[in-house]
Amino acid sequence: MTENERIFELRKTLNLTLEKFGERLGVTKVAISNIENGKRSVTEQMKKAICREFNVSIAWLEEGLGDMFTNLPETLLDELANEYNLNDVLRERIFSRLILR
Question: Do the beta carbons of residue 91 and residue 97 sit within 8 Å?
Answer without folding.
Answer: no
